Every structure is written in C-alpha cells, then in structure tokens.
Amino acid sequence: MLRFLTAGESHGKGFTVILDGFPAGCKVDTAAINGEFLRRQAGYGRGKRMKIEQDKAEIVSGLKDGFSFGAPIAIFIKNNDFSINKKPAIYSPRPGHADLAGGMKYNLKDYRLVLERASARETVARVAVGALCKQFLGNFKISVFSHVIQIGSARVLKKIGQNSIFKLAERSPLRCVDKKAEKEMIELIDEAAKKGDSLGGVFEVIAQSLPPGLGSYAQWDMRLDGQIASAIISVPAVKAVEIGSAVENSFHFGSDVQDEIFYNQKSGFIRKTNRAGGLEGGITNGGSLVVRGYMKPIATLSQALSSVDIRTKKQVKAFKERADVCAVPSAGVIAESMLGFVLMRSFLDKFGSDSLADIKTNYKSYIDRLKNY
Ligand code: EPS
Questions:
Q1: Pocket of ligand 1 contains residue 138 by CB under 6 Å
Q2: Which of 108, 127, 111, 135 is nearest to 15 (CA)?
Q3: 120 CA → ligand 1 middle, Å
C-alpha cells in the first residue's frame, strides 16, 4: 500500500520523508519536485522565513537513473534556518496553536518543543510526496491543481471555466483567478499585516480526467470522500472540507441538486452539472473532482492574545514569533499534494501497484471495458 512518513522540525536540520509502495518503472523529474516547493512557498502574505528557505529535494534512495524500482523513496529537504538550539524556550502558549494541548499531552513545559514539530513547515515534505504522486498520475493524463476562492471576507464572484483556472492561478500572486477579488484580498492582507493580525480563507483543489470507479461504497474506510476529507483536513489550519457544492446543496430540495444522467453515442454517460464534485457513493464518477478547504486564520499573531504563563499561572500575552499573515495559497498547493497522494493510493488499489507497465495494461483493459458498458 502507498504510504509515507515524515520527520523533522521547523528549525531543525531539515525534513526527511519516506514514500513506500511507489511502483517500479516510473520516471521521476527531481526539478519538478523543486518546482512544487517554489509553488508552496509563494503567495502574498507569507512571512520572512520564505526569503530564508530555498527548498531543494535531495533524493536519498529509491531512484536509479531517474526511475523508480519499487524500493522506498527517501527525500531530504534542508532547512537554511537551522537554529533550533539557539531559540528561546516558550512558556506562554498561543491560543489556536498546538502549544497547550501538546504540552499537556507530552508533559512538556517548554512550548518550543511542541511548536517545532507542529509547525506547518512539515508540509514541505508532503509536497515532495505530492510531486511524485502527481507525476505518476500524469502517466494517465490525470492533473491536480488549486486556486484561492476566498481570503477573509473577500470572495471570488466571477465564474471562470475549469480549463482556464490552472494557467490563471499560476500567474497570480494569490493563486486567485478573479482580479477584482484578488485586489480586495491583497488589501485585506495588508491591513492584517499592519495590525499584527492574520487571515484565513478558502482554496479549491480540482483533479481532472479521473476514471470512474476509484474508491468504494463497500466499507466506511474505502469511501474516497472520507479519505479525501481526512487528507485535506490534516493540512495545518484547515478546519472544514467541502466536496462539490455540498454546503450550497444542503439548503435545497433533493430534486434541485443531483446531477442528472444523460447518454449519447459519442460521449457515453454525461452530466450537465457537477454539484457532487465528481464523487457519488464514495466513488469517482468520471467528472472532475472538486474539493474545498476552509482555513482558519493563522494562530501566531504579533498582536498577541491572552494566555497564561505555565510557570506562574499568571495572565500574560501569548508568545510572539515571526509568522505568516496569510498562507491560503500555500495551503492549496499542499492540499494538491494530499489529494494527489490519496488519488494515487486509490488508483494503485484498483489497477495494481508493482510496476508501471502492469498498471498501464490493467488501466487500459478497464477503460476498454467501460467503453462497452
Ligand atoms: C510556521 C511559522 C513560520 C512559517 C512556517 C510555519 O515559520 P518561522 O516561525 O520560522 O517564521 O514560515 O512555515 C514554513 C517555514 C514553511 O516552509 O512553510 C508555523 O508556526 O507553523
């Protein structure tokens, strides 16, 4: 089974990730992994740390001459800010961060030790995994991309066709395809930065050209919607996940929100809408997969909130540290990686997992069968 584990601390030596279960015979482009790192680091509202780090993937194992051979793939990403041993101890936990709950759990009273592992810097390792998964999915013309649809109270209102989103988002400072909304978002971020505050928002991740039939309704943990929700909500600060237009659908009668089924000789089964976001019964239905992540505002604030000193139990202000003002565009890129991972795992479950050649044969035979379904 495809799986991964990460290790590393925000200001430690760096991050290590081991991706296990990656099939043999896949070409891996290391430059493309570094390209994904750059996309993760970009975005208006990121903090000064992003000027320090120049993330690069060092492939430690599992690739030979640019190809996988079925062995676990280990990747190391160095931290330029390797300062963990010089950082001060922290005794006043930040509300909204893992500090207090993590300290209670692990019996730690220096919250530095919680912060270092709980930090969202860990997501650089997940993006390395996602880059590999996206390359694998590319063998089957499946693409995964993201864009920002809301920052604070500023929302995208303009309707843009799905096929234009990727290009437009890549050219934009906030990965937002609506210029008017983006201007408002940038103003809000500037206002938050000035006040020592932070902002959250909503990103949308889209996967195109998926075959129908990934996931299953047969058991609760095989439902792909559940796996996707779990993966997306594991991105730091993401607190809600929506598939398709699920929130809007909940306000309407059933007859208004299902995607009706039609058939023609040329295209086979077709839908004129995609309110289900490409999933029915926990299975991909052949439509584009559309997932939204709702991110809370970042918990580290320079305008610090009330907290308690763990040593004296006296009321103090929470610890302040350098932080981002807004990281919604980055969260979108991280969510692409998480979605890419879940989709690849499910794809391997269905089509085999040892060698790309076998997987391609199985995939073709399935697609051929569906043509006559
Ligand atoms: C983070 C705090 C900031 C972010 C960091 C996540 O780091 P620092 O405290 O060193 O300024 O920049 O994100 C990254 C370093 C990254 O690569 O995404 C946190 O507390 O979660």
A1: no
A2: 127
A3: 6
Ligand 1 atom 12: residue of nearest CA? 49
Q: Which amino acid is at 77?
A: I
103-130 per-position pLDDT tens digit: 999 999 999 999 999 999 999 999 999 9
Cβ(198) to ligand 1 under 6 A? no
Nearest CA to ligand 1 atom 10: 49
Q: Is the CB of 134 under 6 A from ligand 1?
A: no
Residue nearest to atom 15 of ligand 1 (CA): 121
**How far apart (Å, rounded) are the C-alpha atoms in residues 36 and 128?**
8
Ordered by where they begin, the domains of the chain are 3-371 (3.60.150.10)
154-155 and 73-78 strand pairing: unpaired
Using CA positions, which residue lies closest to atom 3 of ligand 1? 323
Tokens matching residue 334: 């991280």
The predicted pLDDT at position 320 comes to 86
| Its pTM surpasses 0.90 | yes
Given a contact cutoff of 8 angstroms between Cβ atoms, the answer to whether 90 and 110 are in contact is yes
The C-alpha atoms of residue 191 and residue 31 are separated, in whole angstroms, by: 36
**CA 119 – ligand 1 centroid, Å:** 6
For ligand 1, mutation pick of 52, 55, 121 (most atoms within 8 Å of CB): 121
CA of 121 to the centre of ligand 1 (A): 5
Over residues 79-95, the pLDDT tens digits come to 999 999 999 999 999 99
